[in-house]
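Help needed: design a sequence for this.
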């Protein structure tokens, strides 16, 4: 990393008038659009803390007691209560032993089995009835991933969870307000050949039942799935980044604004490409676009011609409030000198004091809020594999049945897999970023009926 991206230093902060213009540009566009949601993972890591509680209930009694003071606020509480009644389990108010049994019923197959469900099928929010993240994403898709009366969405899911997703979608799209529009919903699986071996802290392979444990090779493997989609504009957002729908309007507004800025950038690149095809290489025109978009557009003919064939992405960035994950940085680029990239903490050498200082001085965080143009300036499908930086693989810390493991991951979907895309960053409000990384996040105001 060279330096953090910042406001006026690689990140755009849109004025109200600019937001209005961007939304208008998007809504008038005739380009096709689709919502792409990585939704493969089970919720095991979401309950990592609960696994730890169950290993030492007495040592974690204070935290367990504090959690049970608010459990009735959880969207899945009523279903949890029914399971406890069915299993003839004492009320959790009777003491620690009862609370432990309730936690087991939350996690395991004799109860709700939430630790083995995908996040997309766990009830996150409570309205007149509980709703899962899958449904919240359908609400969003209706608002910004629809065209000519059809909303399009694609979910990457694990094969064992496909039936559950299909069943849930079948139930919801036939009900208001989802029945007011036609739906084109598709699924794909992360390719098995992209799995990698899991290792322990000593870098020794992890075994289960005498076989080496393999893990999906990270979200970077999904570049294959993304490459197979056929849409002009593709909105990318993680399955767990949803909020109670009282916050839906702001989310939709900024998604449309990001798309509008992408279309403005695309129009400028198309104009530049027309000049190039006419044999006109106007350095002033290139410099004006460099100044406008704050990106290193090449000035040499061959480099520029190649550059204009790249896919384009506009990435929303929120102010850094200490969430774990990656952020926006300027990095060295072998082709254009330096470029804007999203860098994960796992990619940073923690022993390098300069890199640590750059990380500490960053002002923004990557919420995985992207709009992508995966067709070239003439509308032809781009092969996204051509723009991956294969050197940007990394080792990530994961959890498996409560055990910490390490896994080699492919260049991340929004990191190395998109390293050679034309990229700009735009600030979006923190209110549009509401992830559920662990179960206690569901008790944050943005996920509750009364925030």
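Sure. Designed sequence:
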């Amino acid at each position: 990393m060279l330096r953090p991206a910042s406001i006026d230093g690689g990140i755009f902060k849109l004025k109200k008038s600019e937001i209005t213009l961007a939304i208008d540009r998007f809504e008038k566009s005739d380009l096709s659009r689709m919502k792409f949601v990585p939704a493969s993972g089970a919720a095991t890591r979401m309950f990592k803390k609960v696994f730890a509680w169950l290993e030492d209930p007495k040592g974690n009694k204070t935290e367990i007691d504090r959690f049970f003071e608010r459990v009735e606020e959880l969207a899945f509480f009523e279903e949890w209560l029914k399971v406890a009644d069915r299993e003839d389990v004492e009320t959790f108010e009777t003491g620690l032993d009862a609370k432990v049994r309730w936690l087991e019923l939350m996690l395991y197959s004799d109860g709700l089995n939430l630790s083995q469900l995908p996040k997309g099928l766990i009830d996150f929010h409570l309205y007149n009835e509980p709703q899962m993240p899958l449904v919240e994403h359908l609400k969003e898709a209706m608002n910004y991933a629809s065209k000519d009366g059809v909303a399009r969405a694609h979910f990457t899911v694990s094969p064992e969870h496909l039936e559950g997703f299909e069943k849930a979608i079948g139930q919801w799209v036939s009900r208001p307000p989802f029945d007011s529009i036609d739906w084109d919903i598709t699924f794909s699986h992360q390719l098995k050949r992209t799995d990698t071996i899991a290792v322990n802290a000593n870098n020794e392979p992890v075994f289960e039942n005498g076989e080496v444990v393999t893990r999906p090779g990270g979200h970077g493997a999904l570049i294959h799935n993304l490459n197979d989609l056929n849409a002009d504009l593709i909105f990318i957002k993680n399955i767990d980044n949803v909020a109670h729908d009282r916050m839906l309007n702001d989310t939709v507004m900024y998604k449309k604004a990001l798309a509008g800025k992408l279309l403005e950038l695309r129009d400028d690149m198309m104009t530049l490409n027309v000049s190039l095809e006419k044999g006109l290489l106007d350095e002033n025109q290139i410099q004006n676009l460099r100044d406008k978009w704050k990106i290193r557009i090449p000035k040499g003919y061959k480099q520029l011609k190649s550059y204009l064939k790249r896919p384009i992405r506009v990435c929303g960035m929120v102010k850094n409030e200490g969430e774990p994950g990656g952020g926006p940085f300027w990095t060295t680029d072998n082709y254009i000198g330096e470029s804007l990239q999203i860098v994960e903490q796992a990619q940073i050498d923690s022993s390098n004091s300069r890199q640590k200082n750059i990380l500490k001085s960053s002002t923004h965080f990557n919420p995985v809020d992207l709009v992508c143009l995966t067709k070239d300036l003439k509308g032809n499908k781009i092969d996204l594999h051509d723009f991956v930086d294969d050197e940007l693989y990394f080792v990530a810390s994961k959890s498996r049945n409560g055990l910490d493991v390490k896994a080699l991951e492919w260049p991340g979907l929004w990191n190395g897999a998109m390293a050679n895309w034309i990229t700009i960053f735009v600030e979006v409000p923190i209110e549009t970023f509401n992830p559920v990384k662990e179960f206690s996040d569901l008790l944050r105001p943005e996920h509750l009926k009364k925030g």
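The chain is about 30% helix and 20% strand.
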